[in-house]
Design brief:
By secondary structure, this protein is α/β, with parallel strands linked by helices. Helix content is about 40%, strand content about 15%. The chain is globular, with a radius of gyration of 25 Å.
Length: about 400
């Protein structure tokens, strides 16, 4: 027996606010001289399924519904049974042509609540709760508030920062994140305050004074109350021997550890590579990039001065080219091992190669970076950042597609 058919696509809702695209094959099987429309009957089963919010559950049940219709229609005539073995379903095939998974998974993400140079998504508790669920689905176990404030915008009602002229936030995001991290069994890392003076002057030491008060205040009001509070992120970003960086990192790292009983701290600098250009610049690259030898020499000195109070370093991976990843990553790992620090990668899920800043990254670019991190035996993969560039509910449509490709690659 032969099956006649054509393929068509349609879009169907799976919740009040979400819909998916699905491909159906209109299969016609001759049964007792009649043309039996398999797919149209299978679609009727969708009406009893659409109220469920789980996309995976919907696809599974839709597939089962379709297969049951096909089976019942063909088995009316026992001679048609052999045709069942010839039917293939797209959902059972993985189209990737590369070995997978063969990369370091992303198990942590920054939470960019200030959204300094990317659009704010204006989420409330409901949206954040749903996003934490999406994170959990792909194996994220660590969330990092990238900074507790930037210039005058802050994430929690800090008495100290409000007294310095900062604006009162409408929502205590700090408490919300801690509650959600506790709910979903994740570790929360607190990112220190960024006054902006370092970016204005190039001198990191300006950030120490404000954070003396912020660290004490946050630990007293939040850290001592929530088990999910599991670490500190020293949020000053540097690339090379920035003025005051070693002393500032050491001072803030030591205070964080002393007040919290030794909870871990980490930093996330960038590599001064060819793509290390200002976000507001019209250029995508520069010629005066750091050499591997210079990078190693300068970061050897920095690690030597901070390793006793900084437990991990997560270099941002987007400022170098893809054929440079292994060379720089091997140096980072060697230095981290030398000073007994954890070597993490900050796998950027936005694309620095695009003239529009910033959009979700092409999956293959992310894959190349995570594969290099695995080859160099990195300890953990985190990203900047899931909610904008990888979440199914991001304002960017492409982010949801990246989420699906990631799940496909890691077989999640």
């Amino acid at each position: 027996m032969s099956l006649l058919g054509t393929v068509y696509d349609c879009t169907v809702p799976v919740s009040e606010k979400h819909e998916i695209s699905i491909r159906f094959t209109r299969l016609f099987a001759p049964v007792d001289g009649a043309r039996f429309l398999i797919s149209d009957i299978a679609l009727k089963h969708y009406l009893s399924i659409m109220k469920e919010n789980s996309r995976r559950d919907f696809l599974k049940k839709a597939s089962l519904a379709g297969s049951s219709v096909i089976a019942s229609s063909l088995l009316l005539n026992p001679s048609n049974a052999s045709a069942l073995s010839q039917i293939e379903y797209a959902g059972d095939r993985n189209p990737l042509i590369i070995p997978h998974p063969n990369a370091l998974p992303i198990t942590g993400t920054f939470l960019d609540e200030i959204s300094h140079d990317i659009p704010h998504q204006n989420w409330g508790e409901k949206e954040w709760d749903r996003d934490f669920q999406h994170m959990k689905t792909v194996g994220i176990d660590t969330v990092i508030m990238i900074r507790s404030g930037y210039r005058k915008f802050i994430t929690y009602p800090s008495k100290y920062l409000l007294s310095k002229g900062c604006y009162m936030p409408s929502l205590d995001l700090m408490e919300l994140y801690l509650k959600l991290a506790q709910k979903y069994n994740m570790k929360f890392y607190f990112g220190l305050y960024d006054s902006g003076r370092y970016w204005d002057t190039g001198d990191m030491s300006y950030e120490v004074e404000s954070n003396k008060y912020v660290i004490d205040e946050v630990w007293e009001n939040y850290g001592s109350r929530y088990k999910s509070f599991q670490g500190w992120y020293i949020s000053g970003e540097i690339s090379r021997q920035t003025k005051g960086a070693i002393g500032s990192f050491h001072s803030m790292g030591k205070q964080c550890k002393d007040i919290s009983g030794g909870l871990p701290t980490f930093i996330s600098p960038w590599i001064d590579g060819k793509k290390a250009v200002a976000a507001a610049s019209g250029s995508l690259s520069k010629t005066n990039a750091v050499s591997i030898q210079e990078h190693e020499k300068e970061w050897d000195e920095i690690f030597n001065g901070i390793h006793d109070v900084v437990d991990a370093c997560a270099f941002q991976d987007g400022h170098i080219d893809y054929d440079e990843l292994d060379a720089f990553f091997s140096v980072n790992k060697k230095l981290a091992d030398k000073y007994q620090m954890q070597c993490w990668t900050n796998a950027e899920t936005f694309d620095r190669d695009m003239p529009i800043k910033f959009l979700p990254i092409k999956f293959d670019k992310l894959r190349l970076k995570l594969e290099a991190a695995k080859r160099q035996n990195y300890d953990k993969g985190i990203t900047f950042e899931f909610s904008h560039f990888m979440s199914p509910q991001s304002a960017y449509l492409q982010a949801g597609h990246l989420y699906e490709r990631y799940r496909e690659y890691f077989k999640l």
